[in-house]
Structures are given as structure tokens and as C-alpha cells.
Design a protein that fits this description.
Layout: H1 6-31, H2 35-46, E1 49-50, H3 53-82, H4 90-129, E2 131-132, H5 138-145, H6 152-163
Antiparallel strand pairs: 1-2
Helix pairs in contact: 1-2, 3-4
């Protein structure tokens, strides 16, 4: 049985996210989707693995707590720094830019921690839920969990998400 490797998943995520960032952020903002869970589902599809709806629901619930307590708070702080009124002195502008960059680094660490949590939880459930050569329906399953209908726009986004997986296969 193939399992999910945290390092491989992280490397995949960095490359895949660069290709699908606008869709990931749109789903995060519009559907309250967790980008790391979305990336995991892409990774699982690329690996020809699947999980049950119950496992997906459990992963989503487990991430919710960490994401709300840590990741979202760091992201909100970084965005507040970014949205400050233009600072008057060059020194203040430099300080603001450095602070934003440091917060971005902290946010990235929080994202990586979320991914490690996902891998740990998934590994604990793999013996019961992983299926080799599973159909590609994980993204639709996630949309259903988020209670989001598949509009024409979302259908196009699903196609783009899957096309971006092609180089990894």
C-alpha cells in the first residue's frame, strides 16, 4: 500500500500551488476551503489514491481547529501589515516590508505544520481508507463537503486543477 510522504507532499504542494494559486485562493475565500486540504486531494489524485468521505470530513474538522487558532491569525496579521496606510519615511516602509516578509515566513511554517498534521492523520487511517487506482472524484467530494454546487465556473476550475496535475503523472 502506498502511503503519503510529508516531504514529497510538501514539494508537490510548492510546485502545484504555483500553477493553481488563483483557484486555491478563490476557493479559500469563496468556499472557505482549506488550501492544504485542497493540495492534499490533488496529491492523492496524482498518486492514484483515494480516501473515503468520512476520512475527508475528519481531516477537514481536524484542520479547522489548527487553521483557526494559528494559520488564519498569522495570515490576518500579515494582511493588516500589508494594508497599513503608506508610511511616510523610507525607514518605516522598510520596517513594514521586513515585518510582512517575516510574517509570511511564519505563515509558511504554519501551512507546513497543517500539512504534517494532514499526513499524520491520513497515515493513521490509510490502512482502512486508501484505494489504489481510485477514480478522480476527491475534489468533487470536497466541494460536496463544503456544500458548494458545481457551477460552470467551478467545473472549469476543476478542469484547470486536474490539467495542472498532468506534469506530475
Amino acid at each position: 500500500m502506498t502511503s503519503v510522504n510529508a516531504t514529497d507532499f510538501w514539494q508537490f504542494s510548492l510546485s502545484y500551488y504555483a500553477k493553481v494559486k488563483p483557484i486555491c485562493l478563490a476557493w479559500q475565500d469563496d468556499f472557505n476551503a482549506n488550501v492544504n486540504l485542497l493540495l492534499l486531494l490533488g496529491y492523492l489524485e496524482q498518486q492514484r489514491l483515494s480516501i473515503t468521505g468520512q476520512t475527508l470530513k475528519g481531516l477537514n474538522q481536524a484542520l479547522f481547529v489548527y487553521n483557526a487558532r494559528i494559520t488564519q491569525r498569522v495570515r490576518a496579521l500579515r494582511r493588516r501589515v500589508s494594508s497599513l496606510n503608506p508610511l511616510t519615511t523610507e525607514q518605516q516602509q522598510q520596517f513594514s516590508a521586513e515585518l510582512k516578509q517575516q510574517l509570511l515566513g511564519v505563515e509558511l511554517v504554519a501551512e507546513q505544520q497543517e500539512q504534517q498534521l494532514l499526513v499524520q492523520l491520513l497515515t493513521a487511517n490509510t490502512q482502512h481508507n486508501a484505494v489504489i487506482n481510485a477514480p478522480s472524484a476527491l475534489l468533487e467530494l470536497y466541494l460536496a463537503l463544503l456544500q458548494q454546487p458545481i457551477s460552470n465556473t467551478v467545473q472549469q476550475q476543476l478542469i484547470q486543477l486536474r490539467l495542472a496535475l498532468s506534469p506530475f503523472k
